[in-house]
Structures are given as C-alpha cells and as structure tokens.
Design a protein that fits this description.
This is Transcription elongation factor GreA. By secondary structure, this protein is an alpha/beta fold. The protein contains three helices and seven strands, in the order βααββββαββ. α1 packs antiparallel against α2.
Length: 156
C-alpha cells in the first residue's frame, strides 16, 4: 500500500477522532442498542434500527481511520524549505480579481478548503508544486482558466 502524506496536525486530529470514536461513541451506541432491545419487538423498533445504523457508521469510520493512520507518512513542514512542496503554506493572488488566498498543502485525509487546507492532489496544489514566490500558474477550474501569482511561501 502507498503511504499517505500527512502533517503532524492532521495526524493528531485523525488520531483524536479515532480515540473518541472508540472510547466515547462506541460505548454510547452499545448502551443505546441495549436500551432499544429492552423495548420489545425488534422488527418494529425504530430506535433499535436507528442505533444499529449509527453503530454501522461508527464501525466503518473506525476501520477507515485505522487504515489511514497505519499508512500515514507524517511530515513536519517546519523542517522544509525552498520551492513549494507538501506542507508549504502558500499565499497566492488571483491575477484577474486581485483576491488573495492562503493555503497549506496537505494530505487528502486532512484537506478542508474552508480552513485553508488544500488537498495535494487538487489541480491548484499540483500546479503550485515546484514553484517559487513571484511565479505565475495557470489552473483549469470548472469555471474556466484561472491565473494566480505566488506571493509567499512559508514552512511552519
């Protein structure tokens, strides 16, 4: 299996979610299923079916997190420098609208565009890899071609 690049913060967040699912959510749903069973006929027991569905989701998420964590290649961006690569925090400006955006290039499991965490496999991140401050990039987006200029690169 291929290793999954991840920042230290991303790894810690996934690990915390896994621990919470195992120590809080799993025991709670087991109690909820036991309570629902006490209500009698399971074939018409909506609480029981709902609890079983939630248990299935929790168990699936636990398996997914365990798999991702086992394949994690934790990279500390503060030890890196130079052109843009995984872990870089990049400020870019849209050359058409002068709108500035700052993103950190992270692994797929920790990506969250609203928090400025850009998936390394995204078109913008792929275009940024290897570039330096002052370089321009062209990115094909669903809304058409976009041009950005790299303003700054930081490794935090």
């Amino acid at each position: 299996m291929e290793k999954i690049p991840m920042t230290r913060a991303g790894f810690a967040a996934l690990d915390a979610e896994l621990k919470s699912l195992k120590s809080v959510d799993r025991p709670a749903i087991i109690r909820a299923i036991a309570e629902a069973r006490e209500h009698g006929d399971l074939s018409e027991n909506a609480e029981y079916h709902s609890a079983r569905e939630k248990q299935s989701f929790i168990e699936g998420r636990i398996k997914e997190l365990e798999s991702v964590i086992s394949l994690a290649n934790v990279i500390d961006p503060s030890t890196l420098s130079g052109p843009i690569k995984f872990g870089a925090t990049v400020t870019i400006v849209d050359e058409d609208t002068d709108e500035e955006k700052t993103y950190q290039i992270v692994g797929e499991p920790e990506a969250d565009l609203e928090k400025g965490l850009l998936n390394i496999k995204s078109p913008i991140a792929r275009a940024l890899i290897g570039k330096d401050a002052g370089d321009s990039i062209e990115v094909r987006t669903p809304g058409g071609e976009k041009s950005y200029e790299v303003l700054s690169i930081k490794y935090v």
